[in-house]
Input
Amino acid sequence: IKKTRFPRWDEVLEFELREGEPGEAMLSVEVWDWDIVGKNDFLGRVEFPLDSISRNPTKGWFQLLPFPSTTEDRKGQLGALRLAVRLVEDTVLPPQYYQPLIQLLTEPILCPDKPSDSTALAILERVTSGESRQDVATKLVKIFLGKGLAVPLLDYLTTRELARTTDPNTLFRSNSLASKSMEQFMKAVGLPYLHEVLKPVVNRIFEEKKYVELDPGKMELSRGRRISFKGSLSEAQVRDSSLELLKGYLEDIVDAIVGSVEKCPLAMRVAFQQLRRRVEEQFPLAQHEEVRYFSISGFLFLRFFAPAVLTPKLFGLREQHAEPRTGRT
Output
């Protein structure tokens, strides 16, 4: 974090431990000052014994300690670090223990003749709250991908949501189990495709660090390039320059997406083909002709390409979040 004595990282770091590893193990968090020339400066450290974390999650401000080989007590002069640390233990049983549950979940897909409202999937759909829906969708997609039934699962969930939708303008706009499952499915099968399409232009936006602003209220006219020696850029010049840059970036993104049809994973294409068919069945009138396309673009653009452009780190396109100027662009 550059140019501040009070950095905020807002990072979530996860470390996997093997069974039986914690014991006397220590989690050590160190803070360093990076220098272009010479050695980096050690600023302090905080340590947590893992066996104590397993009993009580730890959260709060912690005084930074000096280097382990240093005996002097700095009495809090090194500053403090705010952290939340917890140890989560997952017990994973052999596959056969999960078979009854998997059989129950896949039953409506494998035996579609049974009443759909009383199936485990239908009940799960009704009882999941907004907070847990993302987790449930992620687990369901993984289970059904493992069984080769992910596309039928999506068809089952989207068909049920279509049956409840009377206004095509609201179709798949809520964060329902169907919407979340399609979202997680696209991430699971389409991430390499997403990277191939978006990474070149996203990397360029990060590396070029151009100043782009179209809102007159937010323009910083003294920050742009100087025009000879007459002073700062005018508002019109910043606007025109920004517009040209944005159009260039957007054209590259749209061209990359439109030109990637053949690279789109087969599973995604099959899922969207099925979705289109179901939407046509539910809204057959000529006035709803475009709904079949909106339903697909709502997922492909609003829940896949657009979020990846806005938050590249969450989709693995970049290792770090964008700094403010790049984020604004």
Q: What stands out?
A: The longest strand covers residues 41-49. The radius of gyration is 26 Å.
